[in-house]
C-alpha cells in the first residue's frame, strides 16, 4: 500500500468514548491507505468511567490492523475525548478508572466552584468557559471530596489524549485545544491558572506541558507498537478540535456534529467568553478559537426512543403537536444535569412516528438554539451547516436539521474526521504546514449539498415554550 503513496505516511488516531480508530494517511493527497478499530468499555454504575489502559490496548490493536503501512509512518497524532480526568500514580499507572466527559456526578462541585470563584461571568472572562460538570476541574473537585485517598495518591493528572501521547513518547505534553476544556487553563493568559489550581488543591507540577501549535510532543519510543521508533509525535488535541482540523475549517462556517453527544461549533478569531455557560470558549489546535456547545443527548437518546417505540430510527412521521425534550441522561446544554426526558402535547391521534420525530426535533433544537451564540456576529446567516458524525448519514437527522435551521446543509463525504484531523496535524508537523490547510488540500469538506428550506417556526415555538414552562420538572 505505502508504495503507491505520493508522499510520506502519517497516522491519525481517534480515541473516543467507546472505541479507538487509527488511519494511515498519505500526507500529500489525504488518501487513507489503511485503517483499524478496537473497542473499549464504559462502566462505573452511577458514573461514566473507563480504565485508561483499555485505550492503550485498543490503540495497539487498531494499529496492528493497519498492517505494513503503519510501519512506514513518519508522524502520528492522537485526537481524544475531551475533559476526562486521568489520575496516575508515581509509576504512571492509573490510580482509578478515568472519569469521562459525560459523567454528571460532579454537578454539585461545578456549581460550588462557579460560586466560589466569582460567578459565571468571572469564569467566562478568565477561563473562557463556565465550568459545567463535564469540565476536568469539577471532576478533580469531586474526586477530592468523594475519594480523598485516590486524590492523595495521584502523582500526575492527564486528559485522555495526553495519556496516550505520553505512553507513545515518554513526555508529559498536552495542547491548548484540549487544555482549554479543563477549567484550569485560562484562555485570557494562554497558561494554567495558578489561583484556580490552588483553590482546588492541584499542584501544577502534576500537569503536562502545554505545547505550542505546530510543536512536536516528542518521538515514538514505545517499542512494542508497530509504529517506527523515532517517528514524530504531534501534541495531539481534543476530539472536537481534531474534527475542526479534519474539515479544514475557516472562521464562520458552522459544524453540527451528531454523535453519542451532539456539538455545534465554528472556528473564530475572537476569544469567546459566554457568561451564560451555553458556549464553551475552547481554543482550537492552531492558534484560533473554537466556541462550542455540546449536548449529552443526541443519537443515543433518539435511538433509545425509537427502541422504546419499536420503530426503525428512520420511521418518522410529520404532523401533530407533540413535543419531546429527550434529556435521558440529564443535559449539559441547557445545563440541566438532573433532568429527565419530558413529553408534552400527547393526544389520542398522536402516532408513534410523530413521537419519534419529536425526539429528533428536541435533540436538534437544543443544538440549533446555541448556534447564534457560537457564531460571531459577522458570520453569514445563510452559511451552510456542515453536518458530521454518525447521525449525518441518516435522512431523518438531515431533514430535521434543514427544517429547524432554515440553512443549507452539506454532508461531507469524508468520515472518521477526528482521526483525519489528527492525521492532518501529524502531516502539518511533518511538512511544516498549517494542518487546516493540509486538510483543505485533501478536500475533506466536500460532500452532498442540500438547499435551504423554510424554517418550521411553529415547531420551534412549541419547543421554546415547553423548555420554559417545563423548568420546574427539568430542575428536580
What does this structure look like?
The protein is of the alpha/beta class. The protein contains 17 helices and 24 strands. Strands 1, 2, 3, 5, 13, 14 and 15 form a seven-stranded mixed beta sheet that branches. A seven-stranded mixed beta sheet has the order 18-19-17-16-22-23-24, sandwiched between helices. A two-stranded antiparallel sheet has the order 4-7. α2 packs across α4 (136-146), α9 crosses α15 (435-442) and α10 (299-309) packs antiparallel against α11 (352-369). The radius of gyration is 21 Å and the shape is globular. The chain starts with 8 loop residues before the first strand and ends with a helix. The relative contact order is 0.13. The mean pLDDT is 95.
What's the SSE blueprint?
Elements: E1 9-15, E2 19-26, E3 32-39, E4 49-50, H1 52-65, E5 73-80, E6 86-88, E7 98-99, H2 107-116, H3 120-127, H4 136-146, H5 148-152, E8 156-158, H6 160-169, E9 173-175, H7 176-179, E10 185-186, E11 191-192, H8 194-199, E12 209-211, E13 216-219, E14 232-234, E15 237-238, H9 239-247, E16 255-258, E17 262-265, E18 280-283, E19 289-295, H10 299-309, E20 323-325, E21 342-344, H11 352-369, H12 371-374, E22 385-388, H13 395-405, E23 409-412, H14 417-431, H15 435-442, E24 447-450, H16 457-469, H17 471-474
Parallel strand pairs: 1-5, 5-14, 5-15, 9-12, 16-22, 22-23
Antiparallel strand pairs: 1-2, 2-3, 4-7, 6-8, 10-11, 13-14, 16-17, 17-19, 18-19, 20-21, 23-24
Helix pairs in contact: 2-4, 9-14, 9-15, 10-11, 11-13, 14-15
Amino acid at each position: 500500500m505505502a508504495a503507491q503513496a505520493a508522499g510520506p505516511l502519517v497516522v491519525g488516531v481517534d480515541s473516543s468514548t467507546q472505541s479507538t480508530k487509527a488511519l494511515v494517511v498519505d500526507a500529500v493527497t489525504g488518501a487513507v491507505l489503511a485503517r483499524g478499530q478496537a473497542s473499549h468499555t464504559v462502566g462505573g454504575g452511577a458514573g461514566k468511567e473507563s480504565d485508561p489502559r483499555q485505550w492503550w490496548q485498543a490503540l495497539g490493536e487498531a494499529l496492528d490492523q493497519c498492517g505494513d503501512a503503519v510501519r512506514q509512518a513518519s508522524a502520528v497524532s492522537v485526537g481524544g475525548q475531551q475533559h476526562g480526568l486521568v489520575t496516575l500514580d508515581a509509576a504512571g499507572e492509573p490510580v482509578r478508572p478515568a472519569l469521562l466527559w459525560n459523567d454528571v456526578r460532579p454537578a454539585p462541585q461545578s456549581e460550588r466552584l462557579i460560586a466560589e470563584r466569582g460567578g459565571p461571568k468571572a469564569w467566562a472572562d478568565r477561563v473562557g468557559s463556565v465550568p459545567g460538570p463535564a469540565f476536568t476541574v469539577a471532576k478533580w473537585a469531586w474526586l477530592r471530596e468523594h475519594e480523598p485517598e485516590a486524590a492523595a495518591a495521584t502523582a500526575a493528572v492527564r486528559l485522555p489524549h495526553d495519556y496516550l501521547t505520553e505512553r507513545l513518547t515518554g513526555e508529559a505534553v498536552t495542547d491548548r485545544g484540549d487544555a482549554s476544556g479543563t477549567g484550569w487553563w485560562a484562555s485570557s493568559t494562554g497558561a494554567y491558572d495558578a489561583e484556580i489550581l490552588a483553590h482546588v488543591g492541584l499542584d501544577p507540577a502534576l500537569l503536562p506541558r502545554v505545547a505550542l501549535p505546530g510543536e512536536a510532543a516528542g518521538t515514538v519510543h514505545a517499542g512494542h507498537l508497530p509504529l517506527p521508533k523515532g517517528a514524530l509525535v504531534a501534541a495531539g488535541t481534543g476530539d472536537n478540535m481534531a474534527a475542526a482540523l479534519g474539515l479544514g475549517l475557516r472562521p464562520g462556517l458552522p459544524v453540527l456534529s451528531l454523535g453519542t453527544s451532539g456539538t455545534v461549533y465554528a472556528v473564530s478569531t475572537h476569544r469567546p467568553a459566554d457568561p451564560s455557560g451555553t458556549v464553551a470558549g475552547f481554543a482550537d489546535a492552531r492558534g484560533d478559537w473554537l466556541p462550542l456547545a455540546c449536548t449529552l443527548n443526541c443519537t443515543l437518546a433518539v435511538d433509545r426512543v425509537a427502541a422504546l417505540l419499536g420503530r426503525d430510527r428512520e420511521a418518522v412521521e410529520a404532523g401533530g403537536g407533540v413535543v419531546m425534550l429527550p434529556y435521558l441522561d440529564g443535559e449539559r446544554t441547557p445545563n440541566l444535569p438532573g433532568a429527565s426526558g419530558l413529553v408534552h402535547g400527547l393526544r389520542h391521534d398522536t402516532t408513534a412516528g410523530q413521537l419519534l420525530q419529536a425526539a429528533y426535533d428536541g435533540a436538534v433544537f437544543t443544538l440549533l438554539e446555541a448556534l447564534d451564540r457560537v457564531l460571531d456576529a459577522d458570520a453569514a446567516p445563510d452559511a451552510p451547516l456542515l453536518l458530521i458524525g454518525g447521525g449525518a448519514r441518516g435522512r431523518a437527522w438531515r431533514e430535521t436539521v434543514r427544517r429547524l435551521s432554515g440553512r443549507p446543509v452539506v454532508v461531507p463525504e469524508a468520515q472518521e474526521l477526528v482521526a483525519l484531523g489528527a492525521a492532518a496535524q501529524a502531516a502539518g508537523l511533518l511538512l511544516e504546514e498549517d494542518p487546516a490547510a493540509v486538510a483543505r488540500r485533501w478536500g475533506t469538506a466536500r460532500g452532498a449539498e442540500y438547499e435551504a428550506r423554510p424554517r418550521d417556526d411553529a415547531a420551534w415555538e412549541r419547543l421554546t415554550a415547553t423548555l420554559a414552562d417545563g423548568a420546574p420538572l427539568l430542575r428536580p
